């Protein structure tokens, strides 16, 4: 198997080839590093990576190969994914690599500790290829708000890869990494997955530790897997999931049985609910067509399709854009130019703490971050707290009740992940409200804490770009998502004649560049 074929394998296939000795981890990591060098940089590069971790990744790979070569307990104790490389969103702190959160205010900052999920990757001996690009402090839906330039969609380099985790999704879609970690506050794993033709999962809130993820909105943020197959995401969530005493919101549930659920291959007798409020008017025709085809495939596999109503979902977007900026304004107060990160002295007057803070935040934060901090601070201010933040929390309760009522009728819910396919770079950059609407279908899951999964649903008729299908399950029922998702993925790939990423024209162009 040559490098071109190797990097297009699933993580599960890579793991099997490593275990059998057909390939080495050093070969696998080097193939991905070569791919990154070929397609990520330059004016027309994907720009998925902000930092490439070459030396450490190869060192970890060499250690895995040496353990396998020695055999015995050294080989037996290796995790199933040992030697399979991974990328990490640059919102998750790592020792030995900069963590910038896509912001100038943290340019070059080196964390003194690893996030819990990074510790688990290291324990599983998964080589970390580097840190991926994102909207600054995860605030955005297009990865155009990064201080280090936008990431480009591998399907069409003039289009956005989604956000805030467009770097992780684009890296996986462009075959620069088989797996990646993202964070999802209102859809930042799932919406990029939809527009890049990848699989993205927001686990149940608390199922994966948030310790070491730079917080935007603590009651909404969740780390999760990005991959090219449902099984790969299940395998990765088993690595990063589980209880963490350093995270007060961490669930005690073990992170097991997810891959087994993905391998089950049966939805017969399950009830799948179409969310009345999350399709139809306002959704691109090609998105609706692929969504309806997915419903028919599930029906043909023995699932019962029923429509359910979640009437308060119409208020989710408004509630989210009060709760999220309110929590962000509090969480980002630590970036003050005093304790760490950028320090900017005032142009005039004495350098008091207040003046230094004002100068630093003015120079270090981008427009979108400033916009959300101002909005959140206003919503939390005296006289407005109950009218805005308090009311938004009441709406959140109503949305949770909608989910509870829906899940009393069905096993999982289904909807399009994003109302449209990827739009062009710059198209909505100066229209924040239009940008926010991209998350209309993903936000309810974060407000309720339930798990959500997106998988490729095909290509839109109008533009030939990927469409995402979203599945939602009750809290703590992540395995149910993987079960249904894997079946739908198999049905869709049988219809397409293979993985959807094989059909990406921009990837064919970058493959030619890689071959040179």
Automatic annotation (TrEMBL):
Locate the active site: 89 (charge relay system), 164 (charge relay system), 188 (acyl-ester intermediate)
Organism from which the protein derives: Arthrobacter livingstonensis
Which GO biological-process labels does this protein carry?
translation
Span list, region Disordered: 143-162
InterPro entries cross-referenced by the UniProt entry: Amidase, Amidase_CS, Amidase_dom, AS_sf, GatA
The record describes its quaternary structure and partners as: Heterotrimer of A, B and C subunits.
Q: Report the EC code(s) recorded for this entry.
A: 6.3.5.7
Where the record annotates domain Amidase, the positions are 27-481
Q: Which UniProt keywords apply?
A: ATP-binding, Ligase, Nucleotide-binding, Protein biosynthesis, Transferase
Q: Does the keyword Signal apply?
A: no
Q: Which gene encodes it?
A: gatA
Report the protein's function. Allows the formation of correctly charged Gln-tRNA(Gln) through the transamidation of misacylated Glu-tRNA(Gln) in organisms which lack glutaminyl-tRNA synthetase. The reaction takes place in the presence of glutamine and ATP through an activated gamma-phospho-Glu-tRNA(Gln).
Protein family (similarity comment): Belongs to the amidase family. GatA subfamily.
Mind telling me which HAMAP family this protein's record contains?
GatA
Q: Name one GO cellular component term.
A: glutamyl-tRNA(Gln) amidotransferase complex
Q: What is this protein called?
A: Glutamyl-tRNA(Gln) amidotransferase subunit A
Reaction(s) the record says it catalyses: L-glutamyl-tRNA(Gln) + L-glutamine + ATP + H2O = L-glutaminyl-tRNA(Gln) + L-glutamate + ADP + phosphate + H(+)
UniProt xrefs under Pfam families: Amidase
Q: Name one GO molecular function term.
A: ATP binding
Transferase in keyword set: yes
Which superkingdom does the taxonomy of this entry point to?
Bacteria
């Amino acid at each position: 198997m040559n490098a071109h074929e190797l990097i297009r394998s699933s993580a599960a296939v890579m793991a099997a080839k490593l275990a059998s000795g057909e390939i080495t981890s050093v070969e696998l990591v080097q193939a991905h590093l070569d791919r990154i060098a070929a397609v990520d940089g330059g004016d027309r590069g994907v720009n998925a990576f902000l930092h490439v971790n070459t030396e450490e990744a190869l060192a970890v790979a060499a250690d895995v190969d040496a353990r396998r070569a020695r055999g015995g307990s050294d080989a037996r104790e290796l995790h199933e994914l040992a030697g399979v490389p991974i990328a990490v969103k640059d919102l998750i702190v790592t020792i030995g690599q900069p963590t910038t959160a896509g912001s100038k205010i943290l340019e070059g900052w080196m964390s003194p500790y690893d996030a819990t999920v990074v510790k688990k990757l290291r324990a599983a001996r998964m080589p970390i290829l580097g840190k991926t690009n994102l909207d600054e402090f995860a605030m955005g839906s297009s990865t155009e708000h990064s201080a280090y330039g936008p990431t480009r969609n591998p399907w069409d380099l003039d289009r956005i890869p989604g956000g805030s985790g467009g770097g992780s999704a684009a890296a996986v879609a462009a075959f620069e990494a088989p797996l990646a970690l993202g964070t999802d506050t209102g859809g930042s794993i799932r919406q990029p997955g939809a527009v890049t033709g990848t699989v993205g999962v927001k686990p149940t809130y608390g199922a994966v530790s948030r310790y070491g993820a730079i917080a935007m909105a603590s009651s909404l943020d969740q780390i999760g897997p990005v991959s090219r197959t449902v099984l790969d995401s299940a395998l990765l969530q088993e690595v990063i999931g589980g209880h963490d005493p350093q995270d007060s919101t961490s669930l005690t549930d073990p992170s097991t049985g997810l891959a087994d659920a993905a391998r089950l291959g049966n939805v017969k007798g399950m009830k799948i609910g179409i969310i009345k409020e999350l399709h139809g008017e306002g959704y691109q025709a090609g998105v609706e067509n692929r969504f309806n085809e997915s419903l028919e495939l599930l029906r043909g596999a023995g699932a019962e399709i029923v429509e359910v109503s979640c009437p308060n979902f119409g208020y989710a977007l408004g509630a989210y854009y009060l709760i999220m900026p309110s929590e962000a304004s509090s969480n980002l107060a630590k970036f003050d130019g005093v304790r760490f990160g950028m320090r900017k002295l005032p142009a005039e007057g004495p350098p008091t703490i207040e003046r230094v803070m004002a100068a630093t935040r003015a120079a270090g934060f981008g427009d979108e971050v400033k916009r959300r901090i101002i909005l959140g601070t206003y919503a939390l201010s005296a006289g407005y707290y109950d009218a805005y933040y308090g009311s938004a929390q009441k709406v959140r309760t109503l949305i949770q009740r909608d989910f509870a009522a829906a899940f009393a009728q069905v096993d999982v819910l289904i909807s399009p992940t994003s109302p449209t396919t990827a739009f062009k770079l710059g198209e909505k950059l100066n229209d924040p409200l239009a940008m926010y609407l991209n998350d209309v279908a993903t936000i309810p899951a974060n407000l309720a804490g339930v798990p959500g999964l997106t998988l490729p649903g095909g290509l839109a008729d109008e533009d030939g770009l990927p469409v995402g299908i979203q599945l939602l399950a009750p809290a703590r029922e992540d395995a149910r998502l993987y079960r249904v998702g894997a079946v739908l993925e198999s049905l869709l790939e049988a219809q397409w004649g293979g993985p959807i990423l094989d059909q990406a024209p921009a990837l064919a162009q970058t493959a030619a560049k890689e071959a040179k």
